[in-house]
Amino acid sequence: MLKGFPKYAFGTMAFLAVAIALQSMRYIAVPWGVWLGVGDDIRGVIEHVPLQMLTHAIVAPFALLTGPFQFLPGLRARRPALHRWTGRVYVSACLIAGLAALATAPFASGGPIAGTGFGVLAALWVSATFAAWRAAVARKIDLHRVLMRFSYAMTFGAVTLRLQIPIGFMLGYTSYAAMSVWLAYTSWIPNVIVVALYSLARGAPRQTVPAAAG
Description:
single chain, about 210 residues, globular, mainly alpha
């Protein structure tokens, strides 16, 4: 993925992903009654549907954390076994967290409009990640890499959502629930558009490659 992609941009993306992933791991303490930095809107959703919401909140950071390293060509070339194992962690985290997000979406604090946006995101996230895994199993490596870009574009929505929250407050919104009506869409659709343009610029993927390709 780094070919044709500025390294400083990738570095910024990876830094933000790791930072938000680590910050999001505070949800691990919630089952023990520790609500460190959890806003009232999110706490309300957790208390209403604890299994779904906590599964998503606890597992999703692992996808955000491991995702950037899947795009390092040096890691794929020198440590293919590590690439495969971190890929399995990423895919597992996306599928578990995505299905949990889909089950949580109807209870979004922003109401049905926000719930629809987050539900569409969850469905596309699970679908793209599963398709990327199937492409890897079938040794359609170029297709796998394209689908993984789309998968991580949606995973990275966790970062862009948080970056957009201050904008919401500047626009006069008084709570996350109020601004989530548009955050449910703006947090991930621009990411997908950027990946689509990047993929088009690089050309359509070949469907098959030799088995030795990584």
